[in-house]
Amino acid sequence: MAKESVQIFDTTLRDGEQVPGCKLNTPNKLIIAERLDELGVDVLEAGFPISSPGDFDSVVKIAQLVKNTRVCGLTRAVKKDIEVAAEALKDAKKSRIHTGIGTSDSHIKYKFNSNRDDIIERAVAAVSYAKSFVEDIEFYAEDAGRTDNEFLAKVCEAVIKAGATVLNIPDTTGYCLPEEYGAKIRYLKENVTGIDKAILSCHCHNDLGLATANSISGVINGARQIECTINGIGERAGNTSLEEVVMIMRQHPDLNLDTNINSRLLFSTSQLVSESMGMPVQPNKAVVGANAFAHSSGIHQDGVIKKRETYEIMDPHDVGVTESAIVLTARSGRAALAYRAKNIGFELDKLQLDKVYKEFLKVADQQKEVSDNDIPKIIKTCGL
């Protein structure tokens, strides 16, 4: 059976850039946009054109540069926003306007001082106006995670009738549990008239560390687009991590879902974004962290040396990592020491290894990690 495709909507250059201290200039954005195009993202949210002249200029230049990916610009449900986004996107080979409004009772009351009927009216007006500029319109129901499902369904029906082609269901505050978010997507799939004319999209935040889990729950329950960022960067605790959702679907073929992402570019893309934004990737970050394929426990090292799959569910080459790392520490065993020694030209028999290992532990207790440069010195100390 052919796998169903899940579109990857990358918002590294829009939501990802909303991290304090991570402002990118236009040349930086163009380099990242070109890499995202090469990576295979389906939609690239290039920015919020009306927010500043610099952002407008970046969206214009990205729209002119990108060859394969659909370029998207964010707006509020405001005519001027939509006009400026349309102008910024006019040179794109494929374009999308992403417009919307808050739909939760909290947003309606405190942010807009409005009511539900007015919100639906404004949503429809925004989608209809955007549709007069481009064909592909994505509508976001901000704070959908805390929006009553019945009202959310009414909003979705209304904007589909107005011409929306994608419905973004954001867990804006990262509040939902995976089962709850999945149930929300399923409810919309089953209760919105005309839902077959639009794609449901997951846009999840990581305030409780559940962005990836919620996005996967969303696609299991019928969504066919995930909005995400490289390294999971984004507002507050971040967004759904692109590399995580892509590899989850690859590693679980029983889901019958896949993406167009060239996963072998994931690690280098992660490094590019990290360096450009000055945002280090935490070493224990899934898929692309420095320790994702590193082993320092003796038991694990012995297993990986004998057969990599004993402790690794992914082949490092599949995400662009050269090889697994056997890191020598005081927790390492004889197998790891022998393996690393052999790699630099020292074949040790059992008796030699026992002798060298005792000396190795003395060194390892004094420093965090034993390097290839240390091994010959340790062997020499043992008189070998």
Can you give a write-up of this model?
This protein is α/β, with parallel strands linked by helices and 384 residues long. It is 43% helix and 14% strand. Helix 2 packs across helix 3.
Could you outline the blueprint of secondary structure elements for this entry?
Blueprint: E1 4-5, E2 7-10, H1 26-39, E3 43-47, H2 53-65, E4 70-74, H3 79-88, E5 95-102, H4 105-111, H5 116-131, E6 137-142, H6 149-162, E7 166-171, H7 178-191, E8 199-204, H8 211-220, E9 225-228, H9 242-251, E10 257-258, H10 266-277, E11 294-295, H11 298-306, E12 325-326, H12 334-343, H13 350-366, H14 374-381
Parallel strand pairs: 1-10, 2-3, 2-9, 3-4, 4-5, 5-6, 6-7, 7-8, 8-9, 11-12
Which residues form runs of ≥5 with pLDDT under 50?
none
SSE series: EEHEHEHEHHEHEHEHEHEHEHEHHH
Radius of gyration: 25 Å
- Summed over residues and divided by their number, the pLDDT gives a mean of 97
**In the CATH scheme, what's the topology name of the largest domain?**
TIM Barrel
Which terms summarize this structure?
384 residues; alpha/beta; TIM Barrel; 8-stranded parallel β-barrel; two-stranded parallel sheet; 14 helices
